[in-house]
Amino acid sequence: MKRLITMLALLAVLPLGLAACGEKQETLSSSAAKQPFTLLLDWFPNADHVGIYQALAKGYFAQAGLDVHVQVPANVADPLDLVAAGKVDAAVSYEPELLLARNRNLPLVSVAALVQQPLTSIISIGKHPVRTARQLRGKTVGYAGISYQQAYLQTILSHAGVPAHSVKEINVGANLVPALVSGRVNAILGGYWNYEAVQLAQRHLHPTVIRMNKVGVPSYDELVLVTRARLLEQHPDVMRRFVQALARGYESVRSDPAGAVANLVRMNPGMDHKLQLASVKATLPAFFPSQAGKPWGWQDPARWNAYGQWMLGHHLISNPNAVAQASTNELLAGQGI
Q1: Are 194 and 46 spatial neighbours (Cβ–Cβ below 8 Å)?
Q2: pLDDT tens-digit map of 128-160
Q3: Which residues contact 291 (CB under 8 A, 6 or more apart)?
């Protein structure tokens, strides 16, 4: 049974040490009183969150003076509203969802990218899979009823020169995989290449995957860490210590994926170990920036702007201020002043 979300007050801030080259780094002290910090996930725990649970298991949050509580949302639509209301300190969310929230004037900002590539994909199976966007002509595509994912399909079809009227769209809600496996649709848009596609592969259904950023949709960060602008302004050290401890968690995953998955499964009984391990291994490159020399969590400002302009152009958002300063790298290792 999902736990109720509780409001945790911020305690007095802990002193920070200053590392070489201007890097802001928390002073690690296991003896100091731990500051409560609540993180709300976007969905049930899964491979995308492996670095969070690794940081817990390895004690990185505690070493940063934080008593971190990870919670699962009772409703997947709630996390950003709860962050904005001050009922949790931070939440895992999605770049497009953050821009939609900021379009509603919620004072939120992304402080790190957990998954730095789009995971959303077009997935098909069977003897005649959809291998290219052009092959969507005449097909039935199931989607999850998310507005921006429907706009992805429109962008993909336009980019491929496929008339929109030649493709039938069906809102299948959360039943993407059942709709695909049953043959109700020829392909789905909304499944993740690192999760649903891995599940289908483990069922020997030989999925064919088309990634969004390969067929005309601007690239974006699939999963991001979001907090309130006010918390960021008043207590940047709190978020800095959290973000940099989380970075250590994901670096530890890169060093020992199998051990990290073992901790993930141990802390979340009932998980399919084989699925989580395969998913983590598939996702490893996406946990880290592709640009050389950039720290974990890096968010490319130009890419954020390009994706935001795409959302504006498709009338998914209407306020240009939703895009401006929606993300910051100030808390990442080696960044800030």
Answers
A1: no
A2: 999 999 999 999 999 999 999 999 999 999 999
A3: 298, 300
What gap in Å lies between CA 324 and CA 232, rounded to an integer?
16
Closest-CA residue to 190 (of 216, 165, 169, 166): 169
Check residue 94 and report its DSSP letter. -
Give the residue among 226, 201, 273, 11 at the shortest CA–CA distance from 101: 226
Domains of the chain in sequence order: 16-117+221-322 (3.40.190.10), 122-214 (3.40.190.10)
Query: Can you read off the two tokens belonging to residue 282?
Result: 């598939």
C-alpha gyration radius of the chain? 20
48-87 burial, b if ≥16 CB within 10 A, otherwise e?
A: bbbbbbbbbbbebbbbbbbebbbbbbeeeebbbebbbeee
Angle between helices 50-58 and 236-255 (to 10 degrees): 100
- In the numeric block, the tokens 């209301």 are attached to 85
- The pairing of strands 208-211 and 120-124 is antiparallel
pLDDT recorded at residue 33: 85
Separation of alpha carbons 64 and 61, rounded Å: 5
Q: In this structure, how many other beta carbons lie within 10 angstroms of the beta carbon of residue 174?
A: 11
**Three-state DSSP state, 63:** helix
Q: Give the contacts of 159 (CB within 8 A, at least 6 positions apart).
A: 133, 215, 216
Question: Would you say 237 and 244 are in contact if contact means Cβ atoms under 8 Å apart?
Answer: no
pTM of the predicted model, to two decimals?
0.88
169 forms beta bridges with 141
Q: Which of 320, 322, 315 is nearest to 147 (CA)?
A: 315
